[in-house]
Please model this.
Amino acid sequence: MAGNGSSFLGWPVLRQLASGDLLGRGAAVTSRRTRETEPRTSTADRVVQSVCPYCAVGCGQRVFVKDEKVVQIEGDPDSPVSRGRLCPKGAASEQLVNSPSRQTEVLYRAPGATEWQRIDRDTAIDMIAERYLESRRNTWQELDDKGRRVRRTMGIASLGGATLDNEENYLMKKLYTATGAIQIENQARI
Ligand code: SF4
Model:
């Protein structure tokens, strides 16, 4: 008899009057399921501050963790950059973390091959480093065609993405400049 829909006292109009919800848009029309639902943010074990990985704005995020798994990501009110806000893309970051189609392994497609193969990360990094050094060796210019010292390579170029943050861009530019690469660009400037 206590159920809202099965007793006289459960009549919607009485619920509206009893709860003060005269327009029937609040407590009077809230289902039991809604009342029993708890936000993931209130049941998390801990909250970790982070930065949205999607673009160079770098909005602050609060990452809610339960049982060592990310369960929710929201804007961080303490961030001077975004003051608690996230755009729709940043607000969907939890899907980036937990998507079943997330790529978590390095895939390599050899020249001429039609299939990808899985390789471990250390192997992939070694392969990139070898190619980088080989390109530099093969395209190194000590002097230009007028005999001026340039000490550079035009065989290496970099196009960074707008998801790279300040620290990553700093390290990349430092590496490229130290190795004589001068064709450095970023998506955010194009
Ligand atoms: S929340 Fe949106 S605007 Fe902010 S860093 Fe992420 S993608 Fe960029």
User: Anything to note?
Assistant: The chain has three domains: 1-37, 40-98, 119-189. Residues 8 and 133 are 82 Å apart (CA to CA). The chain is about 30% helix and 25% strand. Residues 52, 54-55, 57-59, 82, 86-87, 89-90 surround iron/sulfur cluster (CB under 6 Å).
